[in-house]
Design a protein that fits this description.
Blueprint (H helix, E strand, L loop, with lengths): L4 E5 L7 H9 L2 H4 L3 E6 L1 H8 L8 E5 L11 E6 L15 H19 L5 E4 L4 H6 L7 H9 L5 E6 L2 E5 L6 H6 L3 H17 L7 E4 L14 H15 L4 E5 L1 H9 L5 E4 L2 H11 L5 E5 L5 E3 L17 H20 L3
Parallel strand pairs: 1-2, 1-5, 2-4, 3-4, 5-12, 7-10, 8-9, 8-10
Antiparallel strand pairs: 6-7, 6-11, 11-12
Length: 337
């Protein structure tokens, strides 16, 4: 079987995206399992190759994935030439960089939807640069949702085999608590199970985390578990889904890490983010699931404070590509959610 082709938009030119992409492509072991096609500006990537500690890669400009030379040491670039003279300052918000980052993502999505790429692995983009460039999306998830026609994709984090879904994303904690409703828990758990099957995970039990300390101790300090979560789990079990909960958030993630559960449904953003990133920040990978294409991503930002200095670690980018390779064959065969 051919190695999966992973499309890699190179991120915000002024951030660490270009240099961590180059660092990931310098991982010789990764080339044994993946063909990697970078989408970006030749000038930007050549500049990144001149940063301190940059790998010695040979840049190969292509016009299609078929033209790529996917051997170690080769940087295959599908060039879009968005940056013109490339006059930007690393570490600074730049409208042109925001526009370019969006164009790279847009092209990667086109390749994946056309079946020319098996998955997409993304470095970070900068929300301020996107806004400055007039891009009408706040970040990656919203871009992928719109350009793939997916109204509400699921966010899934994976680290060391532990998978965590999120009932809500970027809302206030007050709003997140208000979103813990029976029907929403049931809807997300059903959709999460479809995603697990889409990723080739067909065995095991999904856990639903509690919201309050010790799941509220039967209503002593919070009744969301007894009023919303427990009835949702009971109804899901009646449908035949292998779901357990609510289980206290102070223990459920540790149990998942030990292999007791195939995944956890976290009830709000930071609950699951803290659990995964504390285990291993650099190896936590974000998966945008429930779309017709597979997308993985680093779990950190553009790190403007260190951009261009050659000190950004490519570990998270490397791990994002590995996870894309791991799931690409299953995702392609399972089809849409």
């Amino acid at each position: 079987m051919a190695r999966p082709l992973i499309a890699i938009p190179s991120g915000d030119p002024a951030g660490v995206g270009p240099e961590i992409v180059l660092g990931a492509l310098n991982d010789k072991a990764l080339h044994k399992s993946a063909r990697m096609l970078v989408i970006g500006d030749v000038g930007v990537l050549q500049r990144a190759l001149g940063y301190p500690n940059a790998p010695a890669l040979s840049l190969h400009r292509v016009t299609s994935a078929d033209e790529g030379d996917y051997r170690p040491g080769i940087l295959n670039v599908l060039a879009l030439d968005q940056m013109g003279s490339g006059d930007f300052i690393p570490g600074q918000v730049d409208a042109q960089c925001g526009k370019a980052a969006f164009a790279y993502i847009q092209k990667a999505i086109q390749l994946a939807l056309a079946g020319e790429a098996d998955a997409i692995a993304t470095p970070p983009v900068n929300k301020e640069s996107l806004r400055a460039g007039g891009i009408p999306y706040i970040g990656h998830t919203e871009i992928f949702a719109s350009l793939t026609g997916t109204p509400d994709p699921l966010t899934l984090f994976e680290v060391r085999g532990m998978r965590v879904f999120f009932l809500s994303r970027h809302v206030s904690l007050r709003q997140a608590c208000d979103l813990v409703k029976r029907e929403r828990v049931m809807d997300y758990a059903r959709r999460a199970w479809v995603v697990l099957r889409q990723l080739g995970v067909k065995e095991g039990v999904m856990a639903v985390a509690g919201l309050n300390p010790h799941c509220g101790e039967n209503g002593l300090f919070g009744d969301e578990e007894t009023r919303e979560v427990a009835p949702a789990v009971k109804a899901l079990q009646a449908e035949g889904l292998h779901v357990e909960g609510p289980i206290g958030a102070d223990s459920v993630f540790a149990q998942a890490l030990e292999g007791k559960f195939n995944s956890v449904l976290s009830l709000y953003h930071d609950q699951g983010h803290i659990a995964t990133k504390t285990v291993d920040f650099m190896r936590t990978v974000s998966i945008t699931a429930g779309m017709p294409i597979l997308r993985t991503s680093v779990d950190h930002g553009t790190a403007f404070d260190i951009a261009g200095k050659g000190i950004a670690s490519p570990l998270s980018m490397t791990e994002a590509i590995r996870v894309a390779v791991k799931y690409a064959p299953f995702y392609r065969n399972e089809g849409e959610i």
